[in-house]
């Protein structure tokens, strides 16, 4: 799909992430669409399309497409940080909230804390890439 964004668009039209918690919806997405092995334009394209569909499926959340995009990227970075054996000092919940709040000011600390807890307890959002970012 990297070379065929039109196919990705058609696939996304068929997806619904209604009433799903953001990290769980992102996991579901990456279980169906293989995540790239590196940060690149294709990852940005995937997150852009996912964010658009997530917001369309959950209009009552008050989250914009841009905020969901930033949160998704933050969740991927957190996932890699928490599961990588190469990272000695794991990101704390307080650090995640502080760093993410800077980019998404209207989101509550409680919500950001729940995002962190989900990644910490459930695991990586893109298991097929296992810590390769």
From TrEMBL:
Residue span(s) of domain SEC7? 6-122
Instruction: Identify the Gene3D superfamilies for this entry.
Output: Arf Nucleotide-binding Site Opener,domain 2 (1.10.1000.11)
Q: Which GO MF term does the entry hold, naming one?
A: guanyl-nucleotide exchange factor activity
In the record, biological process GO terms are:
regulation of ARF protein signal transduction
Which InterPro entries does this chain map to? Sec7_C_sf, Sec7_dom, Sec7_dom_sf
**TM helices/strands, residue ranges:** none
Which PANTHER family has this protein been placed in? F-BOX ONLY PROTEIN 8, GUANYL-NUCLEOTIDE EXCHANGE FACTOR
Name used for this protein in its record: SEC7 domain-containing protein
Q: Which organism encodes this protein?
A: Macrostomum lignano
């Amino acid at each position: 799909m990297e070379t065929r964004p039109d196919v990705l668009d058609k696939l996304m039209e068929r997806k619904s992430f209604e009433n799903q918690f953001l990290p769980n919806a992102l996991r579901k997405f990456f279980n169906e669409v293989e995540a790239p092995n590196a940060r690149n334009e294709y990852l940005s394209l995937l997150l852009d399309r996912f964010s658009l569909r997530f917001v369309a499926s959950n209009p009552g959340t008050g989250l914009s497409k841009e905020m969901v995009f930033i949160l998704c990227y933050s969740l991927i970075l957190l996932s890699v940080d928490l599961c990588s054996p190469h990272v000695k000092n794991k990101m704390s919940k307080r650090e995640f909230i502080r760093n993410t709040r800077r980019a998404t000011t209207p989101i509550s600390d409680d919500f950001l804390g729940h995002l962190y807890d989900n990644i910490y307890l459930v695991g990586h959002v893109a298991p097929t890439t296992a810590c390769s970012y």
